[in-house]
Amino acid sequence: MNPISRGLAALSERLTTPEPAAPTLAATIAARRRFFGNAAVDPETGAVSPDRVLVSWFGCASFAISLGGTVFLLDAWVPRGATSGYVPTTVAEVAALRPAAIFIGHGHFDHAADAGPIAQASGAVVYGTTEHCATVRGQVPDPRFDCVELGSADSSYGDRYDFELAPGVAVTAVRHVHSARTARDESPAGSDPVRPKPCPCDIREFPPSLAHAAHLARNIAAPEGGVLLYQFRTDRFTLTWHDSSGPLLDKAPEVLDVLRSLPASDVHVGAVQGFNQFTNGLRDPRSYIEALRPKVFVPNHHDNWLPVFTARGEAFRSPVEAELARIPEQARPRVRMLVDRDDYLAPGVLEFPLG
Q: Which CATH entry fits the domain spanning 23-327: 3.60.15.10, 3.30.420.380, 1.20.120.50, 3.30.450.40?
């Protein structure tokens, strides 16, 4: 190794964020009350109310969920590197939630870069493809958590995996497609391009620390490893989430058939920002919505998680509303728009009765 490489390796090692320690009960109670609200969390045990569905956003496509009292994460990355402090939480605080599981939609840094340290500290079981598990295990020197492999990057589009997360909480994972630019769709299904103006403004207000920039540099080349959509069901509620919306109409229409076969969603949390927005607008997210038939749609992966390349969520409000207006009124979901930074860790913004 040459002197420059040794110097860079030493600097990266010095700037590595220490793994969070196993959280205390007090830390878990505090974290759960901050993410889910004081009224929803027992102040002595940290148990979360079993009669509500609580969804707390902590940036990009990452969410903390309490479904029937079971706490789990959808993706696991606290956005940082281009900024610091834009999302008001830390890896240690997310680990303190003591999630039972972490579900990885795909392996890119903005979705899975903190999954290993969080699982190591909290004891959460990670779910993802073979490649996701390899990436997450590689984030800590001595992984001591389970990772359940749901197919691989070579699995067929539309492959389905069914299992139980907790008593009364069923999960279905479906292999689908990452967002990708495709040729302009000139059919009636096509949509106009969406090009929100990038917002580098937040770098000035929340400049990145050296440690956070180093964390981003270490993880930025993480492989996709396949893409999974997840649906969570109790006997009274159905929640569906995906952290990328691919061009299914062009590349994998069979996935839409699988999504139509699933129970209709009470709440659908779906990615709206993607590579195809510059050619085909929000056509791809709409195809997921039409197949999943939700009552409520919550956009995600649309905030300013990478300033210069991304925009604030408010820039997507009008495009989302215009795209959904193309769905017949009787089938059109209500939109619960999330806007950064107001809706990060905002108890009550996404709260639903269980049944």
A: 3.60.15.10
